[in-house]
Write a structure and sequence with these properties.
The protein is an alpha+beta fold. The chain has one domain (2-140): Aldehyde Oxidoreductase, domain 3, CATH 3.90.1170. It contains four helices and eight strands. The chain has helices spanning 12-20, 53-70, 101-117, 138-145; strands at residues 2-6, 28-35, 44-51, 75-81, 83-85, 90-98, 121-127, 130-133. Strand 7 (121-127) and strand 8 form a beta hairpin. Helix 2 (53-70) runs antiparallel to helix 3. The relative contact order is 0.24.
Length: 147
């Protein structure tokens, strides 16, 4: 299990290949990458993500360990960036490896739902019409109810 919180960009291809390489005991590897998307208005210049380093690392390690306990996983990778990013940049990556695809998919969705709604990150959007903190969305919170 590897959990990384970093400011620098990551190479999705390299990370996915390294994670999946040599997995003779796993039948499924699922990956997901979150990307900064522009606002519907096309007005987003940048997004800045803030966090408290010790608290964030511990929270992400705890949720990754819970996923390993809950599903039959061989491994988990979580990478989440902080700092200033522009549309099109990768924010985060989740990868899960399991003997069977159902566990790999469900665990990846669980981790993504947690990262979207409960992980201790704060996001601020900067655009031509002003700056604003990103508020929690009801649908993101509701997604956690299924777990």
């Amino acid at each position: 299990m590897r959990v990384v919180v970093q400011e620098d960009p990551f190479d999705f291809g390299n990370e996915a290949e390294a994670f999946a390489s040599g997995r003779h005991d796993m039948g499924a590897v699922v990956t997901f990458t979150g990307i900064v998307r522009d606002l519907a208005s096309g007005d987003l210049d940048a997004m800045e993500i803030e966090h408290y380093p010790g608290m964030t690392q511990k929270a992400l390690q705890t949720i990754a360990a819970e996923a390993v306990q809950r599903w039959s996983l061989g491994d988990v990778l979580v990478i989440h960036r902080y700092g200033r990013m522009t549309p099109g940049e990768k924010i985060m990556m989740v990868a899960t490896a399991a003997p069977h695809r159902k566990d790999a998919f469900e665990a990846a969705e669980y981790l993504m739902d947690y990262l979207k709604s409960r992980a201790p990150f704060w996001k601020k959007e900067y655009g031509g019409s002003g700056d604003s903190w990103v508020a929690a969305k009801d649908e993101d919170e509701a997604a956690l109810d299924r777990w």
